[in-house]
């Protein structure tokens, strides 16, 4: 039997964490022969709820789940962990300005970056979901001074999957028929869902849909999908977000399909003219636990201006949190 993989989930008693923990523990992230140790981290006020999650996990009698640690202590939560999935974040409270929210969360992710640096496996892979996810990933990475920025990513996979769903629905094809979707940029309203490289059973997507539909309907719908779900359910999306976490980590760890790619927020290396260091969503291929940004994709003027708009927003977010970034990061 394989050695168990240790996976930390922060904010594990929250909506997304609750939807995620059972999927990870039942083998959907790493496969049916990979034992799991879950380390579920919460803030002290949410510990009682977390104990309930622990009881339910126990009641599932999941054969792959070798141990579950429930804690409010980051030193225990991140101890020797192989994968840290950072979901817990402060929601915007009434009257709070966007910059204040970014700063409040920045403090949490700076602390978590330091704790991961000190306690996690030196090969740890970190996925940030808590918003503003791209900038929180930058802060955590910058504060994990012994780890490489390539070990930190942020999630745009839900936006990627939403775009696949929209396109499949519009063209009356299966999601499995579509390859080469891209989400560029920030996980925010400035993100750019780009179907310009998409193939549907080998046919360019733009042979099957009009640019007007993409610009007037598809892109705004993906950008506002979170709000649409809140309006319908009275609650934010959680199951689809957890599903996207599973997809993101599984592809990162186990690889992407030949001939296809996925979207991940990663530290820019200057690809496509994006400032180095900002965590920007690019198309990536993954193999053996490493990702590579897909190079050489042609971008027209409109594409480039959309990338620049999102980059500008990320540079503004970075400026807001600059005091929490150790020099040079
Ligand atoms: P959720 O589990 O619904 O969301 C958690 C975070 O994920 C939020 O920042 C949310 O952003 C973000 N997110 C990213 N993508 C999505 C998406 N598609 N849909 C919804 N959210 C998305 O929040 P809960 O309030 O239910 O749970 C948060 C948990 O975190 C609580 O249990 C709380 O105790 C814990 N927590 C931990 C902290 C810490 O570790 N120090 C600090 C604060 C809270 P957005 O708000 O923009 O929707």
Automatic annotation (TrEMBL):
Residues given in the record as NAD(+) binding sites: 11-17, 105, 112, 129-131
Catalytic activity: (S)-malate + NAD(+) = oxaloacetate + NADH + H(+)
Active site residues of this protein: 187 (proton acceptor)
UniProt GO BP: malate metabolic process; tricarboxylic acid cycle
Record-listed substrate binding positions: 92, 98, 131, 162
Coiled-coil stretches: none
Ranges for domain Lactate/malate dehydrogenase C-terminal: 156-317
GO terms of molecular function: L-malate dehydrogenase (NAD+) activity
PANTHER family per UniProt: MALATE DEHYDROGENASE
NCBIfam families (alphabetical): MalateDH-SF1, PRK05442.1
Family affiliation: Belongs to the LDH/MDH superfamily. MDH type 2 family.
Name of protein: Malate dehydrogenase
Organism classification: Bacteria, Pseudomonadati, Pseudomonadota, Gammaproteobacteria, Thiotrichales
């Amino acid at each position: 039997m394989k050695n168990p993989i240790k996976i930390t989930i922060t904010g594990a008693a929250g909506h997304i964490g609750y939807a995620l923990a059972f999927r990870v523990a039942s083998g959907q992230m790493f496969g049916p022969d990979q034992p799991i140790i879950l380390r579920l981290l919460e803030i002290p006020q949410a510990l009682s709820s977390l104990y309930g999650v622990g009881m339910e996990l126990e009641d599932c009698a999941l054969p792959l789940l070798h141990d579950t640690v429930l804690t409010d202590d980051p030193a225990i939560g991140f101890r020797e962990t192989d994968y840290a999935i950072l979901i817990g974040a402060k929601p915007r409270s009434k009257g709070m300005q966007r910059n204040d929210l970014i700063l409040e969360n920045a403090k949490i992710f700076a602390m978590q970056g330091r704790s991961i640096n000190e306690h996690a496996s030196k090969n740890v892979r970190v996925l940030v979901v808590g918003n503003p996810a791209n900038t929180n990933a930058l802060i955590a990475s910058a504060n994990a001074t012994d780890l490489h920025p390539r070990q930190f990513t942020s999630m745009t996979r839900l936006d990627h999957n939403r775009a696949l769903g929209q396109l499949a629905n519009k063209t009356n094809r299966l999601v499995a028929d579509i390859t080469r979707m891209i989400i560029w940029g920030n996980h925010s309203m400035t993100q750019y869902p780009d179907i310009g490289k998409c193939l549907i059973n080998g046919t360019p997507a733009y042979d099957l849909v009009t640019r007007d539909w993409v610009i007037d309907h598809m892109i705004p719908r993906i950008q506002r999908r979170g709000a649409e779900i809140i309006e319908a359910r009275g609650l934010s999306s959680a199951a689809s977000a957890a599903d996207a976490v599973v997809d993101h980590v599984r592809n990162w760890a186990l690889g992407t399909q030949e001939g296809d790619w996925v979207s991940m927020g990663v530290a820019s290396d200057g690809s496509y003219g994006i400032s180095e260091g900002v965590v920007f969503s690019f198309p990536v291929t993954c193999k053996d636990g490493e990702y590579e940004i897909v190079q050489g994709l042609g971008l027209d003027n409109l594409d480039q201006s959309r990338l620049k708009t999102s980059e500008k927003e990320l540079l503004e977010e970075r400026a807001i949190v600059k005091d929490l970034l150790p020099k040079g990061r």
